[in-house]
Amino acid sequence: MRSSKDGATISNVSVEEHFSVSQSTSSGQFVGSTEQFSTAAEALVGRSTTLTEALKAAAINVGHKPVETTDVAAIKEVETRATGGEGGGGVTTVAKAAVARNERTEKKDEKTKLRDVMAEIDVKVTRDRAVTREDAEAAVQAELNHSPFKHIIPGGVAESVSAAYKLNRSPSMSSL
């Protein structure tokens, strides 16, 4: 269970069949659960379902959007897990620099996009492995903890990692 910036508590993150996130306020009042079905699975069909492939799927799904701190948080979680904690100088560093640059850039069309950051993933992340449930839940939690609206980005990093886990768990889903 984790507290968000506005005092709400985020708990029960599950990626089994769909996203289910329960939230309550700091006073303990239950806000309710939010369910989001995966739209990222389609981008992963026919692809390897490794952590870096999930990041590539996010670039396919929402690569046109400027990189934000929510993306950096989820990317960092995924990259750390893919490399076994041997990060440093990887895609997370590129994403952080992109966010800093985007904050100084006024025009939306001049901002660094998620697809630009992910273009270097094969060079920046040299180790990889299949996505697990723990990876998916950690990516969702990281994105939720850094989202000003307390939701994940549809088709984004967390959803793509969760879709990869589901495909790993149920290969029969690959006929989507």
UniProtKB/TrEMBL annotation:
Residues 49-104, 112-169 form the SMP domain. It holds the Pfam family SMP. InterPro entries: LEA_SMP, LEA_SMP_dom. It comes from the Eukaryota. Residues 1-32 are annotated as: Disordered. Keywords: Repeat. Residues 9-32 have a biased composition (Polar residues). PANTHER family: LATE EMBRYOGENESIS ABUNDANT PROTEIN 49-RELATED (PTHR31174:SF27), SEED MATURATION FAMILY PROTEIN (PTHR31174). Belongs to the LEA type SMP family. This is SMP domain-containing protein. It comes from Eutrema salsugineum.
